[in-house]
Amino acid sequence: MLVVVAQRGPRMQPLVLTDEERKVLVGWAQRRKTVQALAQRSRIVLACAEGLSNTDVAARERVSLPTDGKWRRRFLERRLDGLSDELRPGGPRTIADEQVEQVIVATLERSPRNATHWSRSSMAAETGLSKSSIGRIWKAFRLQPHRAEEFKISTDPLFVDKVRDVVGLYLDPPENAIVLCVDEKAQIQALDRSAPVLPMMPGMPERRTHDYVRHGITTLFAALNTATGEVIGQIHRRHRAIEFKKFLTRLDKQVPAELDVHLSCDNYGTHKAPIIMKWLAAHPRFHMHFTPTYSSWLNEVERWFGLLTDRQLRRGVHKSVAALEKSIRDWIVIWNEDPKPFVWTKTADEILERLASYLQRIPGAGH
Questions:
Q1: How far apart are alpha carbons 185 and 199 in whole angstroms?
Q2: What count of other Cβ atoms lies within 10 Å of the Cβ of residue 236?
Q3: What is the CATH architecture of 159-194+210-348?
Q4: The whole model's pTM is what?
Q5: Which residues make beta-bridge pairs with 180?
Q6: Helix (H, G, I), strand (E, B), or coil: what is residue 36?
Q7: Residue 50, SS3 per DSSP
Q8: SS3 string of 281-326?
Q9: Strands across the sheet with 212-225, in order?
Q10: Which of 48, 64, 103, 239 has the maximum number of C-beta atoms within 10 A of its C-beta?
Q11: Residue pLDDT, tens place only, 11-40
């Protein structure tokens, strides 16, 4: 008989914190404007102090086992000082830690008197450091004061339930069913430039006039198959519930009769009009799933609309609405020759956790 004896790995040295160390680590981990690398290291040490194994801590913080072990070991060797980045090889430093901290705190916690955000010049004048030093510090801590992105937090009272419903469709679609992301791209303008476009030449980009001539608008109704990436499109000149009903009728004809149809769409009024509710009642294989308000990012067809805009519409020249509509139809045909589905990877819990982290950084958002 062959007996296999499991070998135990090295025994972990217990990690015990003093009250003062725990207070400092909790402060670093919870302070909204702590550098994220330091906040994560603090959470790793706090989790280790709870008695969790390296595997459990790594899973909780989404880091590798070597990373978890590194910061456990560094703390045991040098306590709080061990969580700072080690000195890099090279010449002696000419900028003290206090000066670096001054730059970081000023960048994160206040604005210059004469502007809404810092520039390298204004921060250099404020701190007495060179502009290149300011740039290196910002780069090291991944700070970009010149950049700002937009976001919108949903106020939908059923936000959590709707996120779980829609994401569940993507990650675990029902059997014997097709999942379609549906929406309208409304008021697509047929734009013609006021002068001919100058084609690209070596050393010179394509050039076009900044002004344009409007020739009318149209609306594209589209349904993206989440499994295959194929798109069913229909164009109408108007954007009403009656046009949406016609689009549903087309979906009913094109989707095999033995399949249920699950539609992910937003809360626009045409999707909930009485004529649509009556149509859905007469077609029980159709099931509507509404995304939360201000959450168009949950609808995969919006990503496809972005590709349509970038590749066909933004730089397109159309002398009539009919020409614009033909261009859109041709692009859909080409897309469906080699469709590319969008692979959804985030679970509902991961999305909600990420949103919670945003809310913690917004003053008063939790009230």
A1: 29
A2: 18
A3: 2-Layer Sandwich (3.30)
A4: 0.63
A5: 225, 263
A6: helix
A7: coil
A8: HHCCCEEEEECCCCCHHHCHHHHHHHHHHHHHHCCCCCCCHHHHHH
A9: 231-236, 212-225, 177-193, 260-265, 286-290
A10: 48
A11: 567 777 887 888 878 877 776 655 677 777
